[in-house]
């Protein structure tokens, strides 16, 4: 499929095999649990190759195989595994490479449910140490003889610290540890994980990949066959699989990822720069802004930015912040992102940090720039700041 074709062309056609489906450009939705076989020998052969053929619905169907093929192409990886949510993707990827007595290093700024996976792993006898995401090669001081995984998320999805993934990977590999990356912010579009030392790339495809705020799905892509088989085996053991309708919708969303990400990037940067000039805003946490910590690493490793970023307000009473948020007419409040809609939520990272301390001038708001007209979004924000300032 790849050949000499550019990424923008590949993403449109990856996973499509009209010759297999009577000319249909998109693979049909295969709703299947039981798969029947004409002979005992055919059943035996399917059992031997259960991860590579349609053997039982939980292990995959032509619909999920098409999505996994397309995602592996996007990430430039070996193969992908589709599961039922982004959190499931994180869980199965971690579980694939650790056992009781092992040790994990995890960035202190990860998505909060990732921290809960660490709590789950503790019950399985796996210790987790949280580390400063800006540590870079200094992570060598935290590696233990039993460290099997270094878990990264770059940038962090609340406060947007950009990690020096290549430096971390170099240290991890020198000690025989795998590097896992939550790559949801860049969506496999603006950051190519396997070019920077990552072994396994994880995405909450619920967000930018599916792109329409109506799907729960996760994808794990491995660089090598051995790592892919480890993840696929673990997903089979845990019973994690993605539904056929979700796979179909995600594959359809993937076809327009390129143009959607460009719009998210354009609007996000416009809003970030506009917000940076507002007197109510102390800091804009957007990696593409030169003023943002980690910008130099972002500029080196990333090819663009998505629509997700945060702002820190100057000190202001909580009631004023609530008045601002409650009255927004376009920006909605919701805990996901990556869809067509713009979102804004308050967040306080203080209580979930253990290796670092969050200190800020005032409240933090996380924004997602959707597909609406930027002028309308700015008008909505202007009205919101008027409420923040006490206007009726």
Question: Any overview of this molecule?
Answer:
This protein has 392 residues and is an alpha/beta fold. It has 2 domains: 7-254, Aspartate Aminotransferase, domain 2 (3-Layer(aba) Sandwich), CATH 3.40.640.10; 257-388, Aspartate Aminotransferase, domain 1 (Alpha-Beta Complex). It is 35% helix and 15% strand. It contains 12 helices and 11 strands. A 7-stranded mixed β-sheet has the order 1-7-6-5-4-2-3, with helices on both faces. Strands 8-9-11-10 form a 4-stranded antiparallel β-sheet, with helices on one face. Strand 4 (147-153), helix 6 and strand 5 (178-182) form a beta-alpha-beta unit. The longest helix is centred in the C-terminal third of the chain and has 20 residues, at 257-276. It is globular and about 75 Å long.
The top-level CATH class of the largest domain is: Alpha Beta
Structural class: alpha/beta
Strands, count = 11
State the CATH architecture of the largest domain: 3-Layer(aba) Sandwich
Give unreliable regions as ranges.
Answer: none
Number of helices: 12
- Beta-strand percentage? 5-15%
Q: What is the assigned CATH homologous superfamily of the largest domain?
A: Type I PLP-dependent aspartate aminotransferase-like (Major domain)
- Output the strand order for the largest sheet: 1-7-6-5-4-2-3
**Total discrete domains:** 2
Taking Cα atoms only, what radius of gyration do you get, to the nearest Å?
A: 22 Å
Mean pLDDT: 94
N-to-C span: 58 Å
Coarse shape = globular
What order do the helices and strands follow?
A: HHHEHEHEEHEEEHHHEHEHEEH
Helix-residue proportion: 25-40%
Largest sheet: 7 strands, mixed
CATH topology of the largest domain: Aspartate Aminotransferase, domain 2
């Amino acid at each position: 499929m790849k050949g000499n074709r550019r990424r923008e062309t590949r993403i449109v056609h990856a996973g499509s095999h009209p010759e297999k489906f009577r000319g249909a450009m998109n693979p049909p939705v295969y709703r299947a649990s039981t798969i029947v076989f004409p002979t005992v020998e055919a059943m035996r052969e399917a059992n031997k190759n259960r991860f590579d053929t349609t053997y039982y619905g939980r292990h995959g169907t032509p619909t999920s195989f098409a999505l996994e093929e397309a995602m592996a192409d996007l990430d430039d990886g070996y193969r992908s595994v589709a599961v039922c949510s982004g959190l499931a993707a994180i869980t199965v990827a971690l579980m694939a490479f650790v056992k009781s007595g092992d040790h994990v290093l995890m960035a202190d700024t990860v998505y909060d449910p990732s921290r809960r996976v660490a709590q789950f792993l503790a019950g399985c006898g796996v210790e987790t140490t949280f580390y400063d995401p800006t540590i870079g090669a200094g992570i060598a001081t935290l590696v233990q003889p039993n460290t099997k995984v270094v878990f990264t998320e770059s940038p962090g999805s609340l406060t947007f610290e950009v990690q020096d993934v290549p430096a971390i990977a170099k240290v991890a590999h020198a000690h025989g540890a795998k590097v896992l990356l939550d790559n949801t912010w860049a969506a496999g579009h603006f950051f190519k994980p396997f070019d920077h030392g990552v072994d396994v790339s994880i995405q909450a495809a619920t967000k930018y990949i599916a792109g329409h705020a109506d799907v729960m799905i996760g994808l794990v892509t491995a660089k090598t066959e051995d790592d892919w088989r480890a993840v696929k085996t673990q997903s089979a053991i845990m019973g994690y699989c993605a539904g056929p309708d979700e796979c179909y919708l995600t594959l359809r969303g993937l076809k327009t990822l390129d143009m959607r990400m460009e719009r998210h990037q354009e609007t996000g940067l416009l809003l970030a720069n506009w917000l940076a000039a507002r007197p109510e805003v102390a800091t804009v946490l957007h990696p593409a802004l030169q003023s943002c910590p980690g910008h130099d690493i972002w500029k080196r490793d990333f090819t663009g930015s998505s629509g997700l970023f945060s702002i820190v307000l100057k000190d202001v009473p909580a009631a004023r912040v609530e008045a601002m948020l409650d009255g927004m007419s376009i920006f909605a409040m919701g805990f996901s992102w990556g869809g067509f809609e713009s979102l804004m939520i308050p967040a306080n990272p203080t209580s979930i940090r253990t290796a670092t301390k969050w200190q800020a001038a005032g409240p933090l708001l996380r924004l997602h720039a959707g597909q609406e007209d930027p002028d309308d979004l700015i008008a909505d924000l202007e009205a919101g700041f008027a409420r923040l300032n006490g206007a009726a």
